[in-house]
Amino acid sequence: MKTIAIVDDSPDDIARLAALVDRYFGGDKGAYGVVTFTDGLFLLDGYRPIYDVIFLDIEMRLVDGIGCAAQLRIIDDEVPVVYTTRMAQYATDGYEVGAMGYLLKPVNYYALRLALDRALGKARRQAPVRPWLTEGDEHVAVDAREVDYVEVSGHDLSYHCGGRIYHEWGSLKQCSDRLASLGFSFCSRYCLVNLSHVERLRADSVVVGGDEIPVSRRSRKRLSQELMDFYQRGSGVHGDIG
């Protein structure tokens, strides 16, 4: 899952850029999340190197984009930075602090796509998770993002994926460790669910991939909070942070 930061003091510009990012990822909320900041100061405050790309407005009131990037490079010299601005002449100053380029406002989709293609090519990326599973007599490399949920019986792991079931020998804990970064969470000792595939949360169960899965009493509160956090990270623009 890619994490995109948008730093801009204009709500309209944030909304436009976030909509273009959503278009870039084909509306797949499980593939990306957008975090927004209304000033460079708020990005820097408590900064953690979790972003794959930062879109940084040059003209902001407290800490502008150039000053923000200069401080950012002290604590993170890897994250791709793309400036956004209405004044192209300001953006050239940004190359001194390692910006990949700039986008002129109002940003158009073609320019955004080129910037993201370039930035994500450089961004720290995790290798795709494709467990080698069995289906009957065949071995299949399955994209873990397409898995609805995983059940365990003894040491037999059953991967439910769009009505098909694949198998693997192992423990659910090992499976959880491998899939945690993709948004999988325990709903009981015997089952992991893909949070991006949850269709309905009930008092004692969740509906995933059309199947109703029991949720243990000890897992209910945690699973509900994890679902809320997951969709807040991945549903576009969510207000200010900082």
UniProtKB/TrEMBL annotation:
Gene Ontology molecular function terms on file: DNA binding; phosphorelay response regulator activity
Domain named HTH LytTR-type: residues: 142-229
Annotated keywords: DNA-binding, Phosphoprotein
Domain Response regulatory: start-end pairs: 3-120
InterPro entries (UniProt xref): CheY-like_superfamily, LytR-like, LytTR_DNA-bd_dom, Sig_transdc_resp-reg_receiver
SMART domains: LytTR, REC
Residue numbers bearing the 4-aspartylphosphate modification: 57
Name of the protein this chain belongs to: LytTR family DNA-binding domain-containing protein
Origin organism lineage: Bacteria, Bacillati, Actinomycetota, Coriobacteriia, Coriobacteriales
